[in-house]
């Protein structure tokens, strides 16, 4: 049986008139596929490598003779956006590829070479000569500094087009799928844009810092000592410098009101509050997290505020709690105590300072309880669309006869939304708290045909398959490093009829699709899947992040 690929019932952007042109241009590039391979997590300590930027074969010869020097000043034009939203540019007359942060397609600029890589260099933008195509005014004053919204000043349709192009290039160069594979079977689907482009994030995490980072162009005068303290977002590339922010246009309005209220008072010397210093390891306030959910009965926003501190001293937090607890949407104020020198926000101990320890949210007709540290999709609106696509792609018969394996299940949201159509769902996840949340969420929704197990999927043994009956469908939703080779081998032996691969990193996704479909010849591993569809979804407008839902079918199925 071969499944037809769903068209979705979702809002797809324009058919892609430029796609044919791009695919034609992409064909001669396949020669560098081997060198642009994203090495496997096993060999890379679980970090995804940046795939090397593509280069036309006709330009390779010139490039071989040319290499810019470190510190060299170049006049460049950004051609497209590549991995992590970096601008891809070519040195005139040589075709040599340079990558530059914070430039956009069509922008002409002066850059200085900062780093040399194997066959490309990195450049820092010094000055824009003429702006990019599709320029719009960025509504957020921090947009060009905070490192989050790299493309807020790019017209939204151009943002999604660039993301779609990036996925296509990775599938061709890293995944080694031919244009015929992608074109004949209509494998590559147009990206699903996000209808809500601001205030879509249900979770933001800000940091307290002793060193306020002020971008050079905003630096007017020396600031006084208490004002050197900051609450905001880390300056790009610095773990110890924080850009102070009073509001973030990606989070909800109620969350911005709470952030502004805390900014108003936390530096008051009477309260004796100090930010944690990541060098001396002294100080109290580490992070400030805001999570927005929804009361599932009234539909009203529910806000959780989480103070992460280096010790448990609730009396110090009292003035802050007193200030924000009267806000009507604030239903939970938590304190995670993290005594380690690391910068993580997850506490070893968690205390409820006000209200309840969880907030609620609904997704595809189910209700979920979310605690301060549990994973939950950060764009609830687009998660509805993403989960609908996953369900459509899963081709479950709906007669309750099929087994679903939900790998990297988090708090169980995908598996639980599929449970009504399945005989049983088996979910695996490394974070113990997430597994507890998944079980509680199953109970909350009266779902009894789901089993959630804590375990490390990078360390599965030969007997992993004994934990569940052979699945008809595997959902795999790894985090950025993608799947470990052990898991790839396991899936190739398991031979489930269908795999739905959900990915937040198209580079490692393309690598794993290559393994599952074409095998790993150097390890004598044969692939046994056919790529049926790749559906990019924009979950995070203005940022470089791209989500993809891919359907794989067992050969001969
Ligand atoms: C992208 S999230 C997906 C969560 C979930 N599927 C959802 O949609 O909400 C990836 C999940 O993989 C988990 N994870 C990361 N590494 C893991 C590992 N080695 N073994 C098992 N789970 C892991 C993370 O804790 C996280 O919950």
Automatic annotation (TrEMBL):
This is TRAM domain-containing protein. Belongs to the class I-like SAM-binding methyltransferase superfamily. RNA M5U methyltransferase family. The active site is at 504 (nucleophile). One of its GO terms (biological process) is RNA methylation. Keywords: Methyltransferase, S-adenosyl-L-methionine, Transferase. S-adenosyl-L-methionine binds at residues 377, 408, 429, 477. The keyword Metal-binding does not apply. PROSITE patterns: SAM_MT_RNA_M5U, TRAM, TRMA_2. Residues 36-63 are annotated as: Disordered. Residues 67-127 form the TRAM domain. One of its GO terms (molecular function) is S-adenosylmethionine-dependent methyltransferase activity. SUPFAM superfamilies: Nucleic acid-binding proteins (SSF50249), S-adenosyl-L-methionine-dependent methyltransferases (SSF53335). Residues 54-63 have a biased composition (Basic and acidic residues).
């Amino acid at each position: 049986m071969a499944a037809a690929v769903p068209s979705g019932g979702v809002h797809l952007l324009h058919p892609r008139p430029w796609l044919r042109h791009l695919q034609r241009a992409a064909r001669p590039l396949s020669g560098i596929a081997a060198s642009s391979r994203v090495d496997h997590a096993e060999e890379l300590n679980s970090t995804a490598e940046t795939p090397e930027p593509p280069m036309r074969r006709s330009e390779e010869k010139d490039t071989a003779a040319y290499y810019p020097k470190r510190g060299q000043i170049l006049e460049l034009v950004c051609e497209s956006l590549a991995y992590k939203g970096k601008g891809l540019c070519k040195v005139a007359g040589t075709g040599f590829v340079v990558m530059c942060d914070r430039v956009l397609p069509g922008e002409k600029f002066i850059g200085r070479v900062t780093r040399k890589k194997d066959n490309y260099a990195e450049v820092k933008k010094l000055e824009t000569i003429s702006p990019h195509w599709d320029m719009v005014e960025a509504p957020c004053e921090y947009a060009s500094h905070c490192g989050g919204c790299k493309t807020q000043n790019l017209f939204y349709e151009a943002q999604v087009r660039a993301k779609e192009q990036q996925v296509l290039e990775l599938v061709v160069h890293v995944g080694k799928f031919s244009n015929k594979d992608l074109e004949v079977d209509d494998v590559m689907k147009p990206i699903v844009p996000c209808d809500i482009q601001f205030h879509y994030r249900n979770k933001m995490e800000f940091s307290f810092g002793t060193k306020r980072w002020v971008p050079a162009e905003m630096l007017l005068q020396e600031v006084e000592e208490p004002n050197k303290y900051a609450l905001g977002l880390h300056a790009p590339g610095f773990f110890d410098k924080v850009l102070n922010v009073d509001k973030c246009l990606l989070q909800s309005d109620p969350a911005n009101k709470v952030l502004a209220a805390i900014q108003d008072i936390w530096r008051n010397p009477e309260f004796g509050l100090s930010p944690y210093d990541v060098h001396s390891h002294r100080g109290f306030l580490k992070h400030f997290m805001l999570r927005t959910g929804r009361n599932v009965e009234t539909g009203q926003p529910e806000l959780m505020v989480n103070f992460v501190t280096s010790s448990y001293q609730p009396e110090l937090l009292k003035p802050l709690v007193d200030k924000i607890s009267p806000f009507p949407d604030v239903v939970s104020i938590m304190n995670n105590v993290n005594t380690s020198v690391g910068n993580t926000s997850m506490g070893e101990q968690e205390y409820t300072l006000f209200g309840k320890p969880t907030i609620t949210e609904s997704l595809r007709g189910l209700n979920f309880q979310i605690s301060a540290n549990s994973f939950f999709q950060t764009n609830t609106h687009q998660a509805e669309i993403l989960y609908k696509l996953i369900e459509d792609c899963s081709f479950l018969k709906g007669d309750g006869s099929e087994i679903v394996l939900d790998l990297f299940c988090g708090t169980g949201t995908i598996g639980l939304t599929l449970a009504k159509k399945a005989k049983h769902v088996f979910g695996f996840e490394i974070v113990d708290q997430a597994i507890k949340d998944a079980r509680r969420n199953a109970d909350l929704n009266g779902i009894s045909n789901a089993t959630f197990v804590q375990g490390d999927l990078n360390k599965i043994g030969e007997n992993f398959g004994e934990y569940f009956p052979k699945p008809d469908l595997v959902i795999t939703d790894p985090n950025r490093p993608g799947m470990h080779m052990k898991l790839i081998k396991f899936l190739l032996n398991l031979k489930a009829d269908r795999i739905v691969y959900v990915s937040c990193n198209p580079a490692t996704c393309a690598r794993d699709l290559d393994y599952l479909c074409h095998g790993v010849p150097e390890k004598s591993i044969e692939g046994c899947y056919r790529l049926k569809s790749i559906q990019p979804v924009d979950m995070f407008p203005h940022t470089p992040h791209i989500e993809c839902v891919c359907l794989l079918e067992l050969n001969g199925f």
